[in-house]
Amino acid sequence: MSRALRILAGLAFALLCLAPIAVMATRVGAGDFERLFTERTLGLLSRTLTLGAAATTIAVLVGAPFGFLLSRTDVPGAALMRPLGIVPLVLPPLFLAITWTALFELRGPWATAIVLGVNTFPLVALFTAKAASRVDARREEAALLAGGLGAALRMELPLLLPGVLTGAALAFAFTVNDWSVPDYVSSVGPKFNVYADEIFANWKLEANTGKAVVTAIPLVVVTLAALLPALALRRKGALATLDGDFQRPAPLRLGRLRWVAFAFCLSVVLFCVLGPIARLTYEAGGGGRSFSFAGVVTAMRETLDYERDFLANSLIWSAAAATLALPVALVLAHWIERTRGGRWTEPLILLPVAVPAILFGIGTINLWNHDWSAAVYDGNAMILLLYLGRFLAFPVLVLSGAVAALDPRLEEAGELAGVGPLRRLTRLVAPPLRPSMVGGWVMVFVFAMRELDAAVLVPAANHTVIFKAYNRIHFARDDAVAALCLLILFFLVLPGLLWSLFAREKLEVLP
Amino acid sequence: MMKRLPRRSLSPSLPALALLSIALPALACTLLTGCSSDGDGDPVREVVLYCAHDQVHAEPLVREFERKTGIKVRAEYDIEAHKTVGLVRRIREEQGRPRCDVFWNNEVAHTVSLASDGLLAAYDSPSAADIPAQFRDPERRWTGFGARARVFIVNTDRLGDRAAPDGMWDLVDPAWKADCGMARPLTGTTLTHVAALYTVLGEERTREYLDGLRANEVHLTSGNATLMRQVRESNFTWGWTDTDDYWVAKSDPNGYAVDAVFPDGGPDGVGTLLIPNTVAILANAPHPDEARALVDYLLTAEFEAKLADSRSAQIPVHESLKGRPHVLPLDGVKWMEVDYAEVGAVIDERFEELKEMFLD
Q1: What CA–CA distance (Å, rounded) separates A472 from A470?
Q2: CA distance A61 to chain B (A)
Q3: What is the pLDDT of residues A355-367, one digit of tens each?
Q4: How many domains in chain A?
Q5: Which of B6, B97, B223 is opposite residue A371, by nearest beta carbon?
Q6: pTM for this predicted structure
Q7: ipTM
């Protein structure tokens, strides 16, 4: 690929994604490391890791069978349940916390683990499904002939394991960093603290800035320790390159067990997707006091009228960030996969996702709030830079996985035919990656629509719909909050829904 | 047959790409930033307000200022979960090039801290002439208005025939073991409250009190609104909260059985703590004239009366509004005598200690 392109993409990544972190690192002094680990902070860290492990266990117990059954078996209704199963991942975890604590008398750490498990099980399901779809048909048929369904499942389990573990590692990384769910669940029951409380508390005092940065290090290390093996595992499992003569397997016939499998999958969809949506609809319609479907329509219409501008802002900025991210991500992804040593840059790619959002937001302020960049900082462009910095890693990883699965001989042939680097990238590499490019776009869009903790620190974020939603949760009526949550949910799933309805190719969102 | 690709390479040159990479973001910035002007092409007068008061209460009042003066207010609010920390941190991080003109804080301690770090400008607003000295910085870097009081919210159904608590030491009374609560004193007005206790009771008595809270298994919640909900739902009988949270429960159409107690009114009691909103102009504010106009507006008795009548039921501090009817039973309340500047300083000194005690 063109060296100029690589340099520009690398500079963009360094400026948007790494510079805010570097700026904050300069504020750390040697004394800030004192008392980083005390009995109290280790206790908080231990509780956070336990919470992450519990949530991940739930995600695996639900996600692995769910992903396998819907992707590889003849369970009835799979085509409908597959996309529905992704919805919890798209939702802000706080929305799930609100609905689950309203639906069930669940409180405390267990409630938090369950909500986070529900939020992240689609990650395990997606990777499991992907790995399961890469089992060669001939191998499966041989196992079926030799020992029936049991033998086929025993043969497939080791092949699925890397996919399951990749999803589990990602789920763990997401859950240990989440603060909104423990905070909300604590607000409706007994308070319990997690390590993110310590990080947030240290931002209160001006004198603590260096310490606040240092406090984040253990969680960053834990996150990277989970993510890096996940990236390595995906190459062995879900995204392993297929042989040229790979044969796609037919759905496994479960016999009468298909109805048991159906009951399981339907329960997951009911509890994790339809239940929360139904609860939000119920609240939007007036709840226990005066529920009516007319009330739902009225609440939705009023909310749309009231929040129209904020919704439009969020949609425009999130879509713009996703669109701008794609070309940079494509170049970086190609660089990672096609350059010797490129894969060693993956920890750097992951860093903006691994650092706490508040640290990244403050770093962004420090980087851009100068006279020469005042027009950017004071205006709406700032939020684009922030979204790009925080979420560029997602399309890079999605696309690097896709590039890895692409036969390099095509590009070599193009080069021999005298096709230039840019044209090779746009005409030979990009077209077969279209599902992954759209998947990467959707990921940036969804995460940008959901982003609050870092974005709230920059001026334009006050005018996003997620900001309004969080403040409504604390101060508005339940019907108005529920109506806004439903509206946001609709727009979060809309791009994926439209693609599923009108495109012939499947959306690829796996890194 | 495979279609032949044209031989001519479109490999971009570095200068061309560099030009593109500058031109595109510049275009995006132009489109996304713009500049504001009125219909005649004159620049619109504007002021940037950072507001920690609840958006739902503050927004309509700010719009009224816009209508009256024609000055556009670019108001930016905090989220509840950040409890002022987000805006204060932004002010600190932006100090090299301040963007905010006016900071409307919903408490006093962080404002004092900003003032002592030289981030606020002095302004003696004529609207504040009849605000008592207790609520004004001697150097006029901030002014207090529209206060909240720290009260007990009591669930009268759960209380039954028992006598209601009437003082802060009831929280450490074994009679109320595990049946009362307060927010963790690490954020918001509860942090300010505990800092105020350090200044009024002294270190030893305050430590004794805080240790007593743990020993008496006081429920520690994530915030005052949470505590209000827990008492409202009868999870325990009573606890510290702010008057605005109490009034949200009291005025709810569901008719919750709650009452407020203004504690420590006896001869030996320390009194009820008032925590005012505070307003300040930032040092080197980019729109100083408009900032002064906004501060003058926020500090009028008329504005304070509107805050008092709003759902947040703020308590007026203007002398001219004394005796004015209020939804809260304010008659005869003994207020805590406290030096807010000292309280602000105590937070910085004591925060680590409080974290060790309450963040585990």
Answers
A1: 5
A2: 30
A3: 888 888 889 888 9
A4: 2
A5: B97
A6: 0.84
A7: 0.80
